[in-house]
């Protein structure tokens, strides 16, 4: 399909393509994983092109409800083809190749994401990773053939990061051999699960397991939540859509609240732990964190997801930069393509290199994941901590870098990059969420830091460590690395860079032509050089700090430095004899620090009262609490001039002494009431999270309940598309 020449191609793009130093098909094969995979991908693309319904009206022009219904319509058509293709597959490797190809190709049909994303990305993997063999035999075919639609509800209003703090309870009732699910508090409401709001009829629920009066910690349960025929929520639970969000608009992220909701005993996913009929708890897992397995899997998947999303963004930006011409550099000559500007290349090329860094690392990480899984099947969990640390840090870095790089791509496309139709805003909205979900950036980096510190302790004791962290032992020389946070981060970056370089060299070392090798080498060098320049500070071995020295001799060093001061070279300074010591208040620099703060404060307050609408706009974007830190001088200038002129207008016709007193009174009044009523001022934040009274969860739930999709218990797309599809009548 893509090989055919396309008519009316922009001349600049054609010229750029002609300049390519290597065979594009060869690189395509490398990216796909081989010639056969490229051919298979194209076959699937063609099949979808023939059978998939396209949007009649652009997705972004639809209402929220229409967007969701349109996404269901397309997902059902896509899944019909997917299920058919999956049924023809016999080998596990073919299945995983096919799933990934379908995932990639299907992206072309959604500006946002499919409501089935969690079904594929977490529901099926959790069945595979958390169910006993008998449970897999029951649930997997249903899920693979989409006879049931599932999601993964772990996060609650009150807790996402701290899983051990989840509040939903599953209490075993041995009389009926059932678990009773309850949401004891508002903050225990399940929140966020994709597809839960309207689409899913099953859900994996992570809850605190109680039996015989004991709590055994969080466990996953597979729970039916909607009637299979009517799709109505089952009695004993409240389920709905959480409301508009930055991206993921068609993923119907939902909430779920249980009120004595009963589920059979075997709803507990029993690969790692069981509850016997009489309520006895039996632990099977050799490692306490195996119930967190799906998260590791998705973190691994996300590295390749980021490579893919960034590859789309940078392809858009590079193509557009070849087409876009701007600024007359030489009179009467054509304006240059923006791609020719070095500054533009700086924005774009690092993204290209990052795509390959992520993709090579992702291939390697997935292989590592499968090796560790295979070992764990035989009871060996030794490599799990390292896999957790590795997947955590790579997930954190790649999601963060990816959304930042996509922003650069958007900047590189100027104003047009801000159009939804450019797809860059949607790519950004999708990827910036990945920095938070499946483990927040900071939290995951801290997990890795914890592992590195523990490894370091082993190195100190002279114990053997795994090859991936063996460099810690090599760098025991304090000049090269230290145990400060910077040192740990630097070490972690060394891992990522090392993998990229070795993997990219390995991947292109056979088969591939010299031209491809050259380009890959250049990209690899670019990535390494770019980051060593970006992180020059971290790479410097001397911290140049009295406080941060390795030996901790803080006070000695502070004293040594103090003694070097020129002022200490004479016992009595001559100013003792000649001039009185000034009050610090008299120093102009001190006045500058203090008075500008006071003046700014009044300016904001005045502007708040007299120009309420401007404040509302500015603060709703920046937050009242941040106005005193407004970075833009423009913003400051507006506040200052409004303050001055409005004040002058009010008092200018009065006598001078009265003006002075009134000004003081106004200042006092404003000062006093701004502090007293800061809660009211905060109302302009228009935020469920930033309300003065801190009733965050109540407000989130109130807003969710106002959400139009929750006005009807079952969306009509269920009757039109989902039900006929599930029942095989479509
Ligand atoms: C055929 C199928 C094919 C599928 C194809 C799919 C195609 C689809 C493509 C793409 C899919 C991607 C899209 C998916 C969309 C997902 C949408 C979002 C979903 C979600 O967000 S779900 C919710 C995710 N939630 C989180 O990630 C929560 C983050 N929090 C945690 O992970 C943990 O709570 C914590 C790690 C921060 C802390 O846990 P805690 O129990 O308190 O542990 P600690 O005290 O800190 O540490 C104790 C000890 O445990 C070790 N440890 C922690 N976690 C793990 C782990 N996961 N594995 C192993 N070990 C772990 C930790 O290191 C400590 O060890 P130590 O004591 O130091 O030795
Ligand atoms: C688009 C999207 C889709 C999602 N889909 C799902 C889903 O399908 N199923 C599901 O179960 N969940 C889902 N989630 C929830 C997601 O997994 C959580 O939001 C995520 O794990 C972060 O947890 P949190 O919201 O509790 O953040 P918090 O932990 O409250 O984070 C707030 C801040 O506190 C900091 N912080 C928290 N703990 C620490 C710590 N120990 N040390 C230092 N700093 C800390 C964080 O770094 C962050 O800056 C989704 C979220 C989003 C945005």
From TrEMBL:
Keywords: FAD, Fatty acid metabolism, Flavoprotein, Lipid metabolism, Oxidoreductase, Peroxisome. Residues 292-453 form the Acyl-CoA oxidase C-alpha1 domain. It comes from the Eukaryota. Residues 542-579, 684-727 form the Acyl-CoA oxidase C-terminal domain. Its main location: other. Pathway: Lipid metabolism; peroxisomal fatty acid beta-oxidation. The keyword Flavoprotein applies. Belongs to the acyl-CoA oxidase family. It comes from Diatraea saccharalis (sugarcane borer). GO terms for cellular component: peroxisome. The active site is at residue 438. Residues 23-149 form the Acyl-coenzyme A oxidase N-terminal domain. One of its GO terms (molecular function) is fatty acid binding. Its cofactor is FAD. Coiled coil: none annotated. This is Acyl-coenzyme A oxidase.
């Amino acid at each position: 399909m893509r090989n055919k020449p396309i008519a009316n191609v922009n001349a600049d793009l054609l010229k750029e393509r002609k300049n390519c130093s290597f065979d594009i098909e060869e690189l395509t094969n490398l990216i796909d994983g081989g010639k056969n995979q490229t051919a298979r991908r194209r076959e699937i693309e063609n099949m979808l092109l023939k059978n998939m319904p396209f949007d009649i009206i652009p997705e972004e022009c639809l209402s929220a409800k229409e967007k969701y219904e349109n996404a269901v319509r397309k997902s059902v058509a896509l899944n019909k083809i997917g299920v058919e293709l999956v049924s023809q597959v016999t080998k596990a490797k073919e299945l995983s190749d096919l799933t990934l190809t379908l995932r990639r190709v299907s992206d072309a049909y959604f500006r946002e994401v499919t409501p089935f994303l969690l079904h594929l990305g977490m529901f099926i993997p959790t069945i595979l990773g958390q169910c006993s063999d008998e449970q897999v035999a029951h649930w997997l075919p249903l899920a693979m053939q989409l006879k049931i639609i599932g999601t993964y509800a772990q996060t609650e209003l009150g807790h996402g990061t701290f899983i051990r703090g989840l509040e939903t309870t599953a209490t075993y009732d041995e009389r009926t051999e059932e678990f009773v699910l309850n949401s004891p508090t508002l903050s225990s409401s399940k929140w966020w699960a994709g597809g839960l709001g309207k689409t899913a009829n099953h859900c994996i629920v992570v809850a605190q397991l109680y039996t015989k009066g004991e709590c055994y910690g969080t466990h996953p349960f597979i729970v039916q939540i909607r009637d299979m025929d009517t799709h109505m929520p089952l009695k004993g639970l409240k389920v709905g859509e959480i409301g508009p969000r930055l991206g993921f608009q068609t993923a119907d992220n939902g909430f779920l609240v249980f009120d004595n909701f009963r589920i059979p005993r075997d709803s507990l996913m029993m690969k790692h732990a069981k509850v016997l009929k009489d309520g006895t708890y039996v632990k099977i897992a050799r490692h306490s964190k195996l119930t967190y397995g799906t998260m590791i899997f998705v973190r691994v998947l996300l590295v390749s997801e980021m490579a893919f999303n960034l590859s789309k963004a940078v392809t858009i930006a590079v193509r557009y930069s070849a087409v876009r011409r701007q600024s007359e550099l030489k009179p009467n000559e054509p304006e240059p393509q923006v791609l020719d500007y070095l500054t533009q290349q700086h924005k774009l090329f690092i993204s290209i290199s990052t795509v390959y860094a992520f993709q090579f690392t992702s291939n390697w990480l997935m292989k590592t994941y499968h090796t560790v899984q295979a070992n764990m099947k035989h009871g060996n969990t030794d490599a799990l901590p390292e896999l957790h640390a590795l997947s955590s840090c790579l997930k954190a870095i790649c999601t963060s870098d990816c959304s930042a790089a996509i922003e650069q791509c958007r900047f590189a496309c100027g104003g047009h990059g801000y159009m939804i139709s450019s797809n860059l805003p949607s790519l950004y909205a999708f990827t910036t969420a990945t920095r938070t979900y499946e483990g927040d950036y900071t939290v995951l980096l801290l997990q890795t830091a914890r592992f590195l510190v523990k490894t370091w302790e082993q190195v100190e004791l002279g114990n053997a460590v795994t090859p991936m962290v063996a460099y810690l032992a090599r760098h025991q020389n304090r000049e090269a690395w230290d145990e400060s946070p910077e040192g740990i981060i630097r070490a972690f970056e060394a891992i990522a860079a090392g993998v990229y370089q070795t993997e990219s060299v390995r991947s292109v070392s056979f088969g591939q032509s010299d031209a491809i090798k050259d380009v890959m080498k250049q990209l690899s060098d670019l990535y390494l050089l770019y980051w060593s320049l970006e992180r020059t500070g971290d790479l410097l071995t001397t911290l140049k700090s009295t406080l941060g020295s390795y030996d901790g001799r803080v006070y000695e060093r502070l004293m040594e430095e103090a003694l070097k001061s020129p002022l200490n070279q004479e016992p009595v300074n001559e100013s003792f004899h000649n001039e009185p010591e000034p009050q610090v208040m008299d120093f102009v620099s001190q006045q500058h620090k203090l008075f500008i703060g006071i003046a700014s404060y009044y300016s904001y307050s005045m502007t708040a009262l007299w120009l309420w609408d401007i404040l509302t706009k500015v603060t709703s974007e920046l937050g009242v609490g941040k106005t005193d830190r407004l970075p833009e001088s423009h913003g400051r200038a507006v506040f200052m001039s409004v303050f001055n002129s409005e004040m002058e207008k009010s008092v200018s016709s009065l006598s001078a002494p009265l003006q002075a007193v009134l000004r003081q009174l106004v200042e006092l009044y404003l000062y006093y009431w701004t502090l007293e009523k800061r809660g009211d001022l905060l109302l302009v934040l228009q935020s469920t999270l930033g309300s003065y009274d801190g009733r965050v969860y109540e407000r989130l739930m109130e807003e969710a309940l106002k959400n139009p999709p929750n006005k009807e218990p079952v969306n009509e797309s269920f009757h039109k598309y989902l039900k006929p599809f599930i029942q095989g009548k479509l």
